[in-house]
Amino acid sequence: MDLFYVSTRDGQKKVKASEAILKGLSEDGGLFVPTSVPKLEVSLEELGKMSYQEVAYEVMKLFFTDFTEEELKTCIKRAYDEKFDTEDIAPLTYADGAYYIELFHGSTIAFKDMALSILPHLMITSARKNHVKNDIVILTATSGDTGKAALAGFAGVEGTKIVVFYPKDGVSAIQEKQMVTQKGENTHVVAIRGNFDEAQTGVKKMFNDRELAKELDQAGYQFSSANSINIGRLIPQVVYYVNTYAKLLNAGKIAAGEKVNVTVPTGNFGNILAAYFAKHMGVPIAKLLCASNENKVLFDFFKTGVYDRNREFKLTSSPSMDILISSNLERLIYLVCGCDADKNSELMKSLQTEGKYEITEEMKEKLQDFYGNFATEEETAESIRSLYEKTGYVIDTHTAVATTVYEKYKHETGDQTKTVIASTASPFKFTRAVMQAIGQDDPSVSDLDLVDALAKAANVSVPNAIEEIRNAEILHNTVCDVEEMPQTVKKFLGI
Ligand SMILES: *Cc1c(COP(=O)(O)O)cnc(C)c1O
């Protein structure tokens, strides 16, 4: 039976998975949601004996019902291969009473790889299924992390090209080096003379430029986006929650049917929403602990029912969570207002005009699965230090936000339920902050050299992703003004 997707702001027009993946966002500005969350068809015991790729197939086939078995298996095989430095893909580490799912074993050592390594394959398959003859050109503006993960995902994928724009002086030295050393004929990286907002506005303008779209079409190209609201990014994230539970069961760490809590360091609300979907597929999950940094909009929301972005934006040591509008939350809002697209549209309009909205008591009732809390900068550093001193295990700043919230929750509630924590980045990605937290920073050493000291402290080897960029050749050196962005893209495409 086919599963369909509707927009959170329309609710009527149904599209197939491949159409939703190709479109990314619905024309009305809404996000695509499945009309129901399918139940797992094989038991968790059976899933516990399968490889990550096999579990991925069992989960994704239920959501991407218009893909053939062969299409989906090919996408999975191409995504979760040697790009990951472990066959487990998302291995578990037990430390100080919690299980950490390490989601950072892909090409850019952060969790975005889990979805961005498969999205290009889902997208190109969707294009072919819908008789799109053009090559897909992905445009992305990045403030650092997403750009590299998207480049790595799309590099070498036939039928696609990717152009990433970053603010010349607005990303870290390591992030810039990661991007400008990207291999692959179909990858392009451009530094723009401007800030991130200008880069993003420039990209949005190109998406809406009909003349440009026409020119591209004549040359056999069309634009698309690798944005985090694409269901082709959300659904692959459900897999690791299903896989984790099944593997814990298989290893005898939990009993059949035993519930676990899940703690997720949250920014755009995509990762934790995937855990919510896993719960609704039948994985015994009790509470979903939503962990924020000092940009604690979500903590306030779960406490009061008011989502309010009118506040100071804070730069923290967990930059991938420095977000005031968690775009994926709209999917949860739509679900808890009884899939009422009008009601949801009203709230989102209020967010756009007033910067805030308030949900009803009835909707609040339906958020009982969630617990929200946050970590200050000091608490985050303290969690890294304390876990390291107790166990020798070193976690990154984002993961430490989750660890802090997990400890706060236990302290507040006395709940002893076994807990899984999503570990979203390798500590080697945020070496400086991590070394400061464990009291082993050396200001005279560059970020790229400090990794050797971290490797020693953590007693692990420096990840390949870091070793590679240390000696890599610079392959991209285009710099342009914001106004020149369209010409730059056309030049890359030979138009
Ligand atoms: C993107 C990101 C997050 C936040 O994930 P969301 O799905 O946006 O909530 C957390 N940690 C790291 C390292 C990330 O890159």
Question: Which features characterize this protein?
Answer:
495 residues; alpha/beta; Rossmann fold; six-stranded mixed beta sheet; five-stranded parallel beta sheet; binds pyridoxal-5'-phosphate
Give a verbal description of the structure.
The chain is of the alpha/beta class. It has a domain at 92-109 and 232-462: Rossmann fold (3-Layer(aba) Sandwich), CATH 3.40.50. Helices cover 46% and strands 15% of the residues. It has 22 helices and 15 strands. It has helices at residues 17-23, 44-48, 52-63, 69-79, 112-116, 119-129, 145-154, 173-180, 196-208, 210-218, 231-250, 270-281, 297-304, 329-336, 341-354, 361-365, 377-391, 397-413, 431-437, 447-458, 464-471, 485-493, and strands at 5-7, 32-34, 92-95, 98-102, 135-141, 160-167, 187-193, 221-224, 260-265, 285-292, 306-308, 356-358, 370-374, 419-423, 478-481. The strands form four sheets. It has a six-stranded mixed sheet with strand order 3-4-14-9-10-13, with helices on both faces. Helix 7 links the parallel strand 5 and strand 6 (160-167). The longest helix is centred in the middle third of the chain and has 20 residues, at 231-250. The protein is globular, with a radius of gyration of 22 Å. 48% of the residues are buried. Bound molecules: pyridoxal-5'-phosphate. Pyridoxal-5'-phosphate (PLP) binds at residues 110-112, 145, 265-271, 320-321, 398, 424-425.
